[in-house]
Write a structure and sequence with these properties.
Helices cover about 25% and strands about 30% of the residues. By secondary structure, it is α+β, with helices and mostly antiparallel strands. The strands form 4 sheets. Strands 5-6-7-10-11-12 form a 6-stranded mixed sheet, with helices on both faces. It has a 6-stranded mixed sheet with strand order 13-14-15-16-17-18, covered by helices on one side. A hairpin with a 2-residue loop joins strand 6 and strand 7. Helix 6 runs antiparallel to helix 7. It holds the Pfam family CamS.
Length: about 375
């Protein structure tokens, strides 16, 4: 069923219709008082491994500080993989059949912005270190923290939802980009991995302590997930490298867990790494076959994701210059055949066919499945 949620994500109108069609599936109803009447509903689920979301008074309940990040990192893939991966981390603590997902409501935008900024006389809560006045790449104090994200996990109590747990992601820089003067050239401070880890864990304890003082949080479990940003020139987002848990109202992290993830881009360019060479060869064979099918392809590229050293997913993009609907249909059929023959058999695979006119077709296979699902986007 996961492939259907991906299809829905490519067609916004379909998403909205599907969400409306699954309201109240959790049994959450209406809460009222003498002054206000609040209707709480849920979006429903497209698969068992996804959370239901919260709808309040007919509208999706958005985050108080959504999309907040420091402005010097220009790789948009980071924010997407950061948010998606954060839910994967959350599932280790908050099961999808026991908890309902709610966008962060306790960390206010102004508070999050202060935490992201440098510590200073006017901002004592800044998690990034004070500016030491140095501009040399090896002497200055870099910004270690790039973004912060809160996700709330709710439990049902009668007709009401109450906070059952919380996950907060901290996106850490492996490279800090800075300017010595406004509108000037951009310079880089490379941050050692061990330093990034130690700074992230120290910040995690500060965040837990502060959240415990926030009204409404109480003694629920708090998960802090640490994420390593990819560099600005990377074609893939970063990865999570650790997460910690604070239980029973604790003001610090009581246990840490390492996360082994890696992202790569295929085909390999220059001295870049490719992950497993066998997976790279499989993609290369697939790419060769696809490019020989039609002469007017603009390119075939892939993003690969590894967990614990094993390929868990491959997202392939095929850029075309097709204009004929029959060409797209035939090409999609051929892609399914080539994917079955050449691509790795165990990992989840997604193939998007796109042109300047938008997405033309989509092909997917979930992890462990043998057959691909395909869909050609048509028009009336």
């Amino acid at each position: 069923m996961k492939r259907f949620s991906t299809i829905l994500a490519l067609a916004v109108s379909v998403v909205l219709l599907a969400a409306c069609g699954r309201l109240n599936s959790s049994g959450v109803g209406t809460t009222s008082s003498t002054k206000t009447k609040t209707s709480i509903q849920t979006t429903g689920q497209t698969s068992d491994d996804e959370y239901q979301g919260v709808i309040q008074n007919g509208k999706y309940k958005t985050s108080k500080a959504r999309g907040l990040t420091k402005d010097q990192n220009s790789n948009g893939a980071n924010l997407k993989s950061f948010e998606n991966g954060l839910q994967t981390i959350s599932q280790k603590q908050f099961a999808t059949d026991d908890y309902i997902f709610q966008e962060g409501q306790y960390l206010k935008k102004a508070t999050a912005q202060n935490w992201l900024d440098r510590k200073s006389k006017s901002n004592a809560s800044g998690l990034n270190p004070e500016d030491n006045g140095q501009t040399d790449a090896t002497k200055r104090n870099p910004d270690y923290l790039q973004a912060i994200e809160e996700q709330d996990y709710m439990t049902q109590s009668g007709n009401d939802l109450k906070l059952g747990g919380m996950t907060i992601g901290l996106a850490m820089n492996q490279t800090d980009y800075y300017q010595k003067e406004e509108y000037g050239a951009t310079y880089e401070t490379v941050i050692a991995h061990d330093k990034m880890v130690s700074e992230g864990k120290a910040m995690a304890n500060k965040v837990v302590s502060r959240m415990r003082k926030t009204e409404g949080v109480g003694n629920v479990p708090i998960v802090i997930a640490l994420y390593q940003q990819s560099t600005n020139d990377s074609l893939v987002g970063g990865t999570f490298f650790a997460y910690g848990i604070s239980r029973d109202g604790g003001k610090t992290i009581s246990e840490w867990h390492n996360v082994d993830e890696a992202n790569y881009v295929l085909p390999v360019v220059g001295s870049a790494k490719s992950g497993n060479s066998s997976d790279a060869d499989d993609f290369s064979n697939f790419k060769t076959q696809v490019e020989s099918f039609f002469p007017n392809l603009s390119g075939v590229t892939a993003q690969t994701h590894y967990k614990d050293g094993n390929l868990s997913g491959m997202n392939i993009t095929v850029n075309t210059q097709f204009y004929s609907e029959t060409e797209i249909k035939s090409f999609t059929q051929y892609l399914v055949t080539a994917a079955n023959k050449y691509l790795p058999s165990e990992a989840a695979i997604e193939i998007t066919v796109q042109s300047t006119d938008g997405t033309q077709a989509f092909i997917a296979r979930d992890s462990g499945e043998k057959s691909f699902y395909s869909h050609v986007f048509g028009s009336y």
